[in-house]
Amino acid sequence: MTLYKSFFKRFFDIILAILGFICLFPIFLIVTLLLYWKNNGKPFFFQERPGKDEVVFKIIKFKSMTDETDENGKLLPETQRLTDIGKFVRKYSLDEIPQLLNVIKGDMSLIGPRPLLVRYLPLYNEEQKHRHDIRPGITGWAQVNGRNAIDWEQKFKYDVWYVNNISLLLDIKIIFLTIYKVFKKDGIYKVDNVIIEDFKGTPSPSK
Q1: Phi/psi at 65 (5° precision)
Q2: What 3-state DSSP class applies to 104?
Q3: Do 39 and 25 touch, CB atoms closer than 8 A?
Q4: For range 172-190, the mean pLDDT
Q5: Are 54 and 132 in contact (CB under 8 A)?
Q6: Residue 206 clears pLDDT 60, i.e. is over it
């Protein structure tokens, strides 16, 4: 294990996350107030996600969807619950800002495989499981190579490749590519502009 991966990566995470949160605090505050008003006093979204070594933690994001239900009490489709403010927040990846607190706490890294849903854990094959060998990230190699515009298998290949090739230069490259793609709004949604569908497991190769 390289010294960067075992020590300096976490050191830089703490320093950059604290500085980033301080710089982005005005935006954080404005978005919090807007979503507090739009989402009936609930500006944040908390959800359990698997982190390093599949240890579960609670991720914090801005709540971009309402809790509106139909006449039977069932949540409406995501596309109907996504507010105008929520669309803007997602468009410019502002919903990721609160995760800087997860980075400072040690649940996440600035860069690494995105933390997905806990229910996906039994669905990964042996290679895909290696995405949990390190802390999950706010952004990562898969995010700068397509994000939601690529399929799950390709996304996991990018994740595992990153785990096996972590370096300071690679992380710097991912940071600059992330900034570029956020402003370009590249790969945030699929062609039909719908939230990406759930991962259902990798099909077994045909014999």
Answers
A1: -125, 150
A2: helix
A3: no
A4: 77
A5: yes
A6: no
